[in-house]
Design brief:
CATH superfamily of the largest domain: Tetrapyrrole methylase, C-terminal domain
CATH architecture of the largest domain: 2-Layer Sandwich
CATH class of the largest domain: Alpha Beta
Number of helices: 17
Number of domains: 5
Structural class: alpha/beta
CATH topology of the largest domain: Methyltransferase, Cobalt-precorrin-4 Transmethylase, Domain 2
Strand content: 15-25%
Number of strands: 28
Largest sheet: 6 strands, mixed
Length: 561
């Protein structure tokens, strides 16, 4: 579970941090301008709350219950999921479940109350009477029919007794009016069963189906196998496949369509997969499918493993607000985070259970190989770059490591490249639009390519009258390259050509200098400076605050032919 903890000010931050001890993967959302040191900033409380609710995210709001109710009122009648919503006092003195009774809000309320050492304000009549919510069975079980369930609980509250058929260990401590001769029956079974007016059907998720990607229609194959075995669809706990088919998209699509996890184990035919996973002989075996039924709900984490994931992400220039949402989500789900230590620290804060692997900036290939080793074990791994991972960063190194490796298990990893705002674009945006027309991005570092190649490319780019963006312009180990590059540029560009220097853009202490090619000196630039040199059409004009706007027009002068 990954709830959102919503706070309005610093007064609630201590309680929010205590709640993260209970829910390590939760994100703390704070009101921009009022609170710092949170995972997510929002500007409008109501809009933020509604967006979370509509995305089915559990909400723990550290504020008055009335504020939450008024904020969510407009979306409560919408069709869709109703996630748990709770109000918790800023000082941790009260826990009030508000919405999501069928999504486990009372379970959350009791867990939070116990963690904070207070009482939860439970008002649900069924839970108060019987000590459990029959309409929200614990993990591993699923209610058959909600409408029938409401009538069933209503009859119980009216004074009826009940009997239990099947294994329902969570009911052992409930205060149910049990009677072996009762008219009402709680039936816990995975077999298909026609609904009966006096029965509450609860299905244990104890069915596993092993499948092969060779099946013509995996979803239809699974459904047919369950029907032939007399098993109900809600009892399906997961799909299992051979690890050699881990990258097959049809398997992942089928699991998504059936709304169950997909796990993998050592290769074999479906019957062998079931036996390997459950230690049981398959109930039914076909050419591309086999069914296994366990005695109790299946603990998914104990069945094979998930497909490992490796995401190469770009943090952007450094400011949290310039990091794309997909990157933030990837960092939240990660088990392991790898990268140059400076960039890894920029990517935080991290949960206590996330493992950080910080390395020197020159160890790119070793880092990439290490990332694949971890992901091949079924872990969710992130490799961090600043800016965009595909611009002089880790994306190419990761692909190179995969390309040269004779490691089939690495190729089964779910590999994703997630973009970021590159330093050149961040600097350009701060200055205006110096890269508003065709431009060339170059690294002046000759660590990985000969200087002669840089000179040739720079000469041709200047001849083509492209605006230029220089990465790695200078360093203590390379003090002469920028001067040599500027000698080439000055043979093609006028002295008044605008030049934009952006140092630490998007980070504390950022600095922007607008100068000209004629006035630019090498000592104005260091290794943390982005250099943007305009084309022949780039121009500047005064800003109201006394600075300058820089832009390269989208048109180009027409030369008569």
């Amino acid at each position: 579970m990954r709830p959102a903890i919503i706070i309005l000010g610093n007064g609630a931050l201590a309680t929010a941090q205590r709640l993260k001890g209970l829910y390590p993967q939760a994100q703390i959302h704070g009101l921009a301008g009022r609170v710092e040191a949170v995972d997510v900033l929002y500007s409008d409380f109501g809009a933020a709350l509604r967006a979370l609710y509509q995305s089915a995210t559990p909400i723990i709001a550290l504020c008055a219950a009335g504020i939450v109710i008024r904020s969510l009122a407009s979306v409560l009648l919408e069709k869709g999921a109703e996630p748990p919503v709770l109000a918790v006092a800023e000082d941790a003195s009260a826990v009030v479940p508000l919405l999501g009774g069928l999504a486990g809000v009372n379970v959350m309320a009791r867990a939070i109350a116990e963690h904070l050492q207070v009482d939860a304000a439970i008002t649900t009549s069924g839970e108060l009477r019987f000590g459990t919510c029959l309409l929200n069975p614990p993990e591993g079980y699923v209610l058959g029919d909600l409408g029938q369930g409401k009538r069933f609980v209503s009859d119980l509250l009216a004074g009826e007794s009940v009997r239990v058929e099947g294994q329902a260990p969570w009911l052992a401590d409930a205060r149910l009016p049990l009677d072996d001769q009762a008219r009402l029956t709680i039936r816990v079974a995975s077999q298909t069963h026609a609904p009966v007016a006096d029965e509450l059907l609860i299905y244990p998720r104890n069915v596993l189906v092993a499948v092969s990607a060779e099946a013509d229609d995996i979803v239809a194959t699974v459904i047919q196998a369950l029907q032939s075995a007399g098993l109900a669809m809600p009892a399906l706990a997961c799909l299992l496949a051979a690890d050699t088919q881990m990258a097959d998209e049809s398997l992942h699509a089928a699991a998504l369509a059936l709304d169950v996890p997909l796990r993998f184990t050592a290769a074999g035919h479906p019957g062998q997969l079931v036996e390997h996973a459950l230690g049981l002989t398959a109930l039914q075996v076909g050419a591309h499918c086999a069914v296994g039924v366990a005695a109790l709900p299946i603990e998914i984490a104990s069945v094979g493993r998930v497909r490992g994931r490796l995401a190469v992400i770009g943090l952007g220039p450094g400011a949290a607000e310039l990091m794309v949402p997909a990157v933030k989500a990837e960092l939240t789900r990660a088990d392991d985070v790898l990268g140059y230590e400076t960039y890894v620290r920029m990517a935080g804060p991290f949960r206590a259970d996330q493992v950080l692997h910080c390395t020197d900036n020159r160890e790119e290939m070793q880092r990439a190989r290490h990332a694949f080793e971890l992901a091949a074990q079924g872990r969710s791994v992130v490799v961090v770059s600043s800016g965009d991972p595909g611009v002089f960063a880790m994306a190419a190194a990761v692909l190179e490591a995969l390309h040269e490796a004779d490691r089939p298990e690495w190729h089964q990893v779910d590999l994703q490249m997630l973009p970021g705002v590159s330093a050149s674009l961040a600097t350009a945006a701060l200055a205006g639009a110096p890269l508003g027309h065709d431009f060339c991005v170059m690294s002046l570092s000759d660590n990985l390519k000969p200087w002669s190649i840089i000179e040739t490319r720079l000469e041709l780019a200047c001849q083509a009258d492209l605006a230029l963006a220089f990465y790695n312009p200078i360093s203590r180990a390379r003090p002469l390259q920028l001067g040599k590059a500027l000698e080439i540029v000055r043979r093609h560009r006028a002295p008044q050509t605008p030049v934009t220097l952006g140092r630490d853009v998007g980070r504390p202490g950022q600095r922007l200098i607008i100068t000209t090619l004629g006035e630019l000196t090498v000592d104005q630039v260091d290794s943390r400076t982005m250099v943007l040199v305009g084309s022949s059409t780039t121009c500047t004009f005064a800003k109201a605050d006394g600075g300058q706007w820089v832009y390269t027009p989208r048109w180009y002068p027409h030369k008569p032919g």
